[in-house]
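Before the break, one more example. Copy the sequence into your notebook; we will annotate it together after we see the structure.
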Amino acid sequence: MAENVVSKNQEILITIKRIGINGEGIGYYKKLAVFVPFAIPTEEVVVRITDVYEKYATAKLVRVKKPAESRIKPLCPHYELCGGCQLQHIDYSSHGDLKRSIVMEAFDRYFDKKLNPKLFYNTITMDTPWHYRNKAKLPVRFDGEKLVTGLYSFDSNKLVYINQCDVEKEDIREAVKKICAYLTKHQVIAYSPKSKEGVLRHIVVRSSTHTKEIQVTLILYKKDIRTIKIAKDLINIDNIVSVYYTVNDDLDSIETFGENVELIIGKDTITEKLGDYEFQLLPTAFFQLNLEQTNKLYAQIAKFANLKGYENVVDGYCGVGTIGLTLSKGAKEVRGVDSNKQAIVNAIGNAQRNFVENARFYSGNMLVNLVKWSKEGWIPDVIVVDPPRLGMELKLIHYLQEHPAKKLIYVSCNPATLAKNCNHLQRVYNITKIQPLDMFPQTSAVETVVLLERR
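Here is what the structure looks like once it is written out:
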């Protein structure tokens, strides 16, 4: 069908009607959806078709004939090249409405019933939407003179070298520059995807707002004693308190860390603070990337939970226990569960560090633990889940349908899987509140908290 409407390299004029889940503008040409990166709803644009599929086409923006009032000049010189941000060309005052619409459209598409628009609250935005990201995973290359880091261009494996990033914390970028300069001086060899030679693949840097500590992990293609010895002196760079390495020789691996992450020098962990609680973070520990917005997110979860002190609470996919410990002060008992054993070790330590006695953490599958606890007579009143982007497993959803808690609070960074999972759950739960939150300003990503209450 689409081939009969447009052809590749054809230029057409369209009006952008809405924003897509990846931040692209979506317009229609003879009823065919056309996806255009860097186009904004309400704009009239001339585009060149890049690919034609059965039900839609993609296009490149050629020129803006009628710009939206919200169109601005991007702050970052690498914007449109590196793929890290998708919305810098839009004034931030409009981002909240755009991200709310992304969530609404996901539910409109994947949720069988029509939801009342009043259920969708206004997006919680950020006061200063720059320099918030507290962790960076950066591929490394040799540019002919020195080691450099970059980000992959959108939807490709092309690496764009960058020397500044306006969404990273400034101390991370300064540390990366000094790390690259030191490793270049000592002739550490970057891995080359073309020649399949070299050692250093990625540099991972995490920064604590609370303590100003910086944790560095070098991801190597193979174990190289010389590189590891050289890396010891990275501890002398300002604020770096721990240096790790890991080996990952799987070039198709989505996860950058290898099976084992080894401390080279310094402290095992760095310390971060959320609300009243301190958290010890290992390199592999999941921790939200935006501290300011995470505090707002957890306040929203606590508001939805509305705990009275007698409730049993489950913190599903708990990571290092941040949500569970935050809710512990209002609950009778909190039980966190995660399949990552190291995260649970971290969570148990964090409970002890913060003198929280009513929170316990368990390693393993969430469904297996829920069944076990039920047989022991421990029934949750409130369940909070914050699953990976793929959403909850179907078996877990079926269990929650058969054994519904009074409240299920679903936290998600993927509106599509969120809406699909909620659609399965609607048989026994009513959706009563949907709260979008801008966890990653300047990007198309949107965090959402949904309150589902047992019918």
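The CA atoms of residues 31 and 64 lie 21 Å apart. DSSP finds nine helices and 21 strands in the chain. Try to locate both features in your own notes.
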